[in-house]
Amino acid sequence: MKQQLFLGLIAIAVAAILPACGGSSGGSSSSPKNVIFFLGDGMGMTTMTAARIYKAGEDGSLTMDNLPETAFVKTYSNDAQVTDSAPSMAAYMTGIKMNNEVVSMTPDTSAYDKTTLASYVSGADTTCPTTGNGKSVPTLIELAKKSNLATGIVTTTRVTHATPAVTYAHICHRDGENTIAAQLVPNGNGYNSALGDGIDVVLGGGLAYFQPKTTTGSKRTDTRDLVAELQTAGYSVVSKNSELIKVASTQKKLVGLFTSSHMSYDLDRLATSADEPSLAAMTSKAIDVLSANKNGMFLMVEGGRIDHALHETTAKKALQDTVAFDDAIQVAIDKMQAIDPGLKNTLIVVTADHDHTLVLNGYAALTGKTTPTNPGILGLLRSYIDNALTLDVSGNAFTILGFGNGESRLATRTALTDATVAADTYHQEAAIPTALGSETHGGGDVFLGAIGKGAEKFTGVLLNTEIFGLIMGIFNL
Ligand SMILES: [Zn+2]
To answer: Is 85 a catalytic residue?
Structure first.
């Protein structure tokens, strides 16, 4: 009932918007429709603030800070105060609130057997019931395909991970990544036919879910070679940055699977000179290829590992991945301004799917940006009064950044130094102890910024499901 009411409100909102954007110029339907949706996974507002200080100092700014229109987004899911990445992204992509861990299905879909509470997933395979457990709901990418737009997904996670998955797949449990991979491969068993001839550009990690089980490192439990199937379906498949660079913008179908699992954290990519593209490089190539379609494009770009670094309570990695995400936004704005001056037919939206428990502690003096000789916001907390170390009740110094929960909370520890806490692998301390890597999402509202056509419609405090209707209305998809 609640859902019907919501869908009704969306329909009214869309109807109210349509005359304004479709009315006077009869030729508007032939104008390109370009939507680029940026999702910083787990990029809560404290992470954004800390990343700004990390990169540019307190008085500096990120590209995100300069987006002309902003809003706040409420992120709770259909069944949880604190959402996971599947229903939160699905809310943006489908306009429907669904249960935690569900990928683009109706609200009655559960990732767990309601009687036994057993999960419908084992490894990367699912046993989702084929009846009585919800139905698929259309996604923005499917609707963009129906409107003959070029479509793309770019991520630093596995392309089968929750956030990218909800743009193109439908499944009762996000961990069924073998099934999710099959939904991406045109003509193959289990393909999502609502994608027409297939998503045009897919770039990220996760090769293991596309390789037959006979290949070392494969996560598949069958003998299908999805890379070969993609090539048969007309895709050029690349696995290195040096190959991606050479892909011509006339290429129609492109898949890049650069790592077996998730791509490297940006700090590690930079440190090891791996032949992996940056998020900005992938975004740039995706726009080059997709912009050949004169109808326009729908491109989703995820900074997916901000979330992973926060789960690990390694703040430095999270902040660097946030900066890499911000760099990709700048590349997209610059490229689209060149293609579509003034962004008259282009909307770029930047948001996050949920918060984390990162906090900015105490009354720290200004630190300025992080450099090889200045830990900046990663350092120990020093008072604004005299720049002396601030101590806890036990006489211990502590870091400016901490977490609400996480594994690093020692009963006794040696004195921390700036060198220790500014290391790439340092795990910030947390108030509530958890298992290693199990820091949780937070329930706070998240930031949304927008630029370009219709950006002014993104304002106030929005429900995450409202974003879908706004994009649909602005472009009459
Ligand atoms: Zn997430």
So the answer is: yes
